[in-house]
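thread from #wetlab-drylab

HS: before we spend reagent money on co-crystallization trials with NAP, can we at least see a predicted complex? here's what I'd submit
DV: go for it
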Amino acid sequence: MDKIPVGILGATGMVGQQYIALLADHPWFEVRFVAASPRSAGKTYRELVAGRWHHAKTGGPGTDSLVVEDANDVSRAAAARKRGELSFVFSALEMEKETVKALEEAYAAAGVPVISNAAANRWTEDVPVLIAEVNPHHASVIPFQQKARQWDRGFIAVKPNCSIQSYTTPLWALMQAGYEVRRLAVTTMQAVSGAGYPGVPGLNVIDNVVPYIGGEEEKSEREPLKIFGAVKNGVIENAAFPVISAHCNRVPVSDGHTACVSLEFGAKKPSVEEVKRIWESFSGEPQALNLPMAPSRPIIVREEPDRPQPRKDRERDKAMAVTVGRIRPCPLFDLRFVGLSHNTVRGAAGGGILNAELLKAKGYLS
Ligand code: NAP
C-alpha cells in the first residue's frame, strides 16, 4: 500500500528525533513534513540536527533533506494536507502549555489530526490519554470531540507522561484480572533524556540524584486516574482509585525510567505467583491487531534479584515492553515491584506511533 504521509511538530528535539529514527522504516507511515521553532524554519533537517543527533543511524535521505517549517504557522500544514502530502501530525513540542494547547487545537481545526506527546491537552475532558494496551476504548470520545468543536477531520489524542509508563500497564493488568488497587506509593528514577535536549546540565546530574522534576509528581498522581476512567456521555470520567503518592527523581541514566512501587489491593489480594502469571499472560488490543510498533509481550517479568536495569532491559521488544521484577510482598501495603520502560520510545515517540497505528486500525485516521 502507499505509505501515509505524516508530519512531526518539534522534529528537531529529543522526542522528535526519536520519531524520525523510528519512522525511518515504518511499514505504514512516511515522514513528509517537519516543523520546529521559528529559529529552525527554512533550514534543512540535516543542518539542524548536525551535532545534536542522538541515534546510531539517521532517518535517511528522505528526512535529511526536508526543509523545516515553523510549527506556529498552521497554514503550511493545512496547505500540505490539501496537496495530499500530510495526513496527520505527531506533536513533540516543548513550549508554554497554553501555547501548545492553542496550537494543537489550530492544527485539528485545520483538518490535521494531532497525536501528541505534550501535556497541554491531557486534562481536556474529551481528549483521550491513550496507552494502547490499556484504554483503547477511550478513542470513542473522538467523534464527540469533533462534533463539539465542529472539526470535520481533525482531532487531538495524547499520550501520558513518560514517568507513569513503567507501572500503569502492570496495574491495569491486575485490575483486569479482578484485583482492585486502592493505594500506591511510587518512587521514580528518571533518565536525563526525559528532560529533552540539552536538558539537565551535566554538572547538575553526574554523580548526583536530583529529588525534584517540576510538575512530574502531580502528573504521576493524576494521569493514571484519567487512563483508568470510564467514557460517559462523550467525555472521560476519572477513576477514584488508586490514590497515588509519587516521588520523582532525576538520576544519571541516559534512557529508561525506573519505578519502585508498593501497592495495596482491595479485599481480594493475589499471591505473588498469581501476579507474575497475570503479567506474563497480559496482552492488549495492539497485540490482537498485530500493530507494527506493538511489543509481542507488553509486560516482561524478570526473576533475577537485580533486574530490571535500564542498560540491560530498556531495549527489550523494540524498547516497547515494560520490564518488571523484584515482585515480592510488602510489609506496609500488599505487594512491591520494580518497573522499567524506555522513556523516549515506550514513553514518548514509540507510544505515539503505536497510538497512531491503533487509531488508523480503528478507522479514526482516514
Ligand atoms: P526538546 O528536546 O526540548 O525539543 C523541543 C522541540 O520543540 C524542538 O523541536 C524545538 O525546536 C521545538 N520548539 C521549542 N520552542 C518552540 C517554539 N517557540 N515554536 C515551535 N517549536 C518550538 O523536548 P523533548 O524532550 O523532545 O519533548 C517534547 C515534548 O514531549 C514535550 O512536551 C515533553 O514534555 C514531551 N515528552 C518528552 C519525553 C522525553 O522523554 N523527553 C517523554 C514524554 C513526553 P527547535 O529545535 O527549533 O528549538
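DV: The longest strand covers residues 181-190.
HS: ok that's useful, forwarding to the group
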